[in-house]
Each structure stands twice: as C-alpha cells, then as structure tokens.
Amino acid sequence: MQAQRSTRGELGGGGNAAEGGETSNDTKTHFRVCRFIIETGVKLGMKSVPVATACALYHKFFQSASLQVYEPYLVAMSCIYLAGKVEEQHLRTRDIINVCHRYFHPGHDPLELDHKFWELRDSVVQCELLILRQLNFQVSFEHPHKYLLHYLLSVRSLLNRHAWSRTPIAETAWALLKDSYHGPVCVQHQPQHLALTALYLALHTYGVQVPRGEREWWQVLCEDVTRAQIDGIMTELLQLYDMEAKCT
Predict the structure, then answer these.
(1) Phi/psi of residue 216, each to 5°?
(2) Region of 136 on the Ramachandran plot (φ > 0 left; ψ -120 to 50 alpha; else beta)
(3) Is 41 in contact with 54 (CB distance < 8 Å)?
(4) Which has the closest alpha carbon to 97: 56, 134, 55, 43?
C-alpha cells in the first residue's frame, strides 16, 4: 500500500494523515477529507446522492481501517470514483485526478499524462478494489434525502402558509442533512431518523411550532423514533459544527 500512503504528497496536500493516531485528530482528519469529497464532488458536477454515497463509503471504510495504514485522500478519490458507478453517474478517473490536483494546487495546469499520472490512476483503481473487499461489496446505501423530502411536504401542510414562507426551514434542513456527511453520523443511524432530526433541528432553530394532535408530529411521521434518539443525533450534528470551527 506504499502508493496509497504517498498519494497526497503527489497531489500536494500537507500534513500527516494519522496525525498522531489520536482519536480527536483522526476526527479532524475525517472531517477535512469529507469536506474535500463534497467540494470535489461539486466541481465534478456530481449530484447530491452520489456525493452522499462517496462520503458514506469513506466513513464505512474507516470504521474498520486505520488512518495509519491507508492514505485518506486516496481513499476519498476512490470513493468518489466508486460512488459514480454505484449511483450511475460515471466519472472519468482523469477528471477526478485533475480536479483533486487543482484542489491542492489552485490555478495550476492539469497533470501531465506521464508516469506519475498513470501511477496515481492505478492507485485509485486498486484502492477502489480494496474498498469493495473491505465492505464485502456492500456499497449501496439508503440515504435520508427521500425521507426528508416527504417530511418537509408533510410538515408544510400542517403549518400556516405565512409561517412556512417567512422562515427558511426547508433550506436549513437540507443544509443540515448535507453537513451530516462530514461525520460518521450519516452511517450510524437509520436514514429516517437522520432526516427527521434535520427537520426537527431546523424547526427548533427558527422557533417554529408544529400543531400537536394526539401525538407529536415527529411520532406521526416516524413511529419507531424516540425523543432520546432525536436528541442524540442532534448532539452529533452540532458537534460537527464545533469540529468545523476547529478545522478552519
């Protein structure tokens, strides 16, 4: 795996991937790498679900792999490549490599098609096979996006039209859901629970109250979730924003 450990140096990224092997530093590394995946995905024109799949693949891989062994940015590039296949938005390895190179070298020309480029391309493809084996070829995910869309439509029908239009509840909920992929919270909870929590937190942020019937609105939308689970996921989401401040 020597090629994997040297990839970030070839691209120009700095820092030690393991960062001392401490849990807090590992968390910072994963946050930064997932930010890299999301920003790279945008530049590649990837849709939201393929980007989410790339992040989920990354988090799943490092649930059983070590940063001291595998270069995270190479894994990230391979996750982007694999996610494009899984979600049928195929991407060329050359485009991925060039966009990633530009990420570390803003304003530079694309890499020349020399032996370093082909070594890097081979590393991306080999790492893709490693990820597939590590995850036992379980690379399809049920994402919370479709659930959030359903919940938003349901809650909007319960609210006063003016209350909905004057607060960016939908935009905030979608932003929270997108940001959840910076951390392992996106693969540690059921997609319905994550979607519901994003909406719950968005409503709470703007102080919007949903009319209550015999049960709370969130109990009606998702019968198997508890308030304790919602609070727990909210805590994990808010910790990601604390991490963002530490990583800037």
Answers:
(1) -65, 150
(2) left
(3) yes
(4) 43
pLDDT in tens, 3-24: 345 444 455 444 443 333 446 8
How far is 4 from 35, CA to CA, in rounded Å?
20
d(CA 125, CA 121): 6
Q: Which two tokens stand for residue 94?
A: 């050359």
User: CB–CB of 123/3 below 8 Å?
Assistant: yes
Task: Return d(Cα 54, Cα 81) in angstroms, integer.
Answer: 8
Q: Counting Cβ atoms within 10 Å, is residue 197 exposed (0-12), middle (13-18) or buried (19+)? A: buried
Non-local (6+) Cβ contacts of 205 within 8 A are 172
| pLDDT for the residue numbered 23 | 65
H helix runs in 64-188, sequence order: 72-86, 93-104, 115-134, 145-158, 161-165, 169-179, 185-188
DSSP structural state of residue 223:
T
